UniProtKB/TrEMBL annotation:
It is a multi-pass membrane protein. PANTHER family: 2,3-DIKETO-L-GULONATE TRAP TRANSPORTER SMALL PERMEASE PROTEIN YIAM, TRAP TRANSPORTER SMALL PERMEASE PROTEIN. One of its GO terms (molecular function) is transmembrane transporter activity. Residues 22-153 form the Tripartite ATP-independent periplasmic transporters DctQ component domain. This is TRAP transporter small permease protein. Keywords: Cell inner membrane, Cell membrane, Membrane, Transmembrane, Transmembrane helix, Transport. The chain crosses the membrane at residues 46-64, 84-106, 126-145. Pfam families: DctQ. Part of the tripartite ATP-independent periplasmic (TRAP) transport system. The keyword rRNA-binding does not apply. Belongs to the TRAP transporter small permease family. GO terms for biological process: C4-dicarboxylate transport.
């Protein structure tokens, strides 16, 4: 599973690059406006980078155990029941993310097939910014499958280590 960890970290690094790109774009837009100019489609690019930063960070965040969890019910359960509940919820998450990834991939493919372009000042093929969303969702589905496999084989998931140390939410 070392390859998946690398992919999650690479996607996380690209998410960081997208956030840095938003900051650079905003600063460049401010500078351009001070000089009486503007950067064409800056809002579009900022929005696409925001989406990229969110979707590409999902698998790494899940794998690190840093997703926000609602633990009101699970904290009141014994450890064994908590693992069973997590296994069931993870299985549901796998199904949901596979469904979502499938439809997002179909959406990106449709944009590519029909040659959809953005409506901003710059005509950008929409499949390009949509691709980060698809990659993030596919990797999140893979991370959830990996998590389910770990649960079903009795291996710990990241939250187990944190909960054992008394750092639960």
């Amino acid at each position: 599973m070392g390859v998946t960890r690398f992919l999650y970290r690479a996607a996380g690094a690209l998410a960081c690059v997208a956030l840095a790109g938003i900051a650079a774009l905003i600063l460049a837009q401010i500078a351009a406006r001070l000089m009486g100019a503007q950067i064409k489609s800056a809002d579009d690019f900022a929005g696409w980078m925001l989406a990229a930063s969110m979707f590409l960070a999902l698998p790494m965040t899940l794998n690190a155990g840093d997703h926000i969890r609602v633990t009101v019910i699970s904290e009141s359960l014994p450890a064994g029941a908590r693992r069973v509940l997590d296994t069931v919820v993870t299985a549901l998450g796998v199904g949901l993310m596979l469904w979502a990834a499938w439809h997002i991939l179909a959406y990106v493919r449709e944009s590519w097939v029909f040659g959809d372009v953005s409506q901003g000042l710059l005509a950008v093929p929409l499949w390009i910014p949509q691709l980060s969303m698809a990659v993030g969702m596919v990797l999140l589905a893979v991370a959830l499958v990996e998590r389910l496999f770990r649960r079903l084989t009795g291996r710990p998931v990241p939250e187990d280590d944190r909960d054992a140390q008394g750092h639960g939410e």
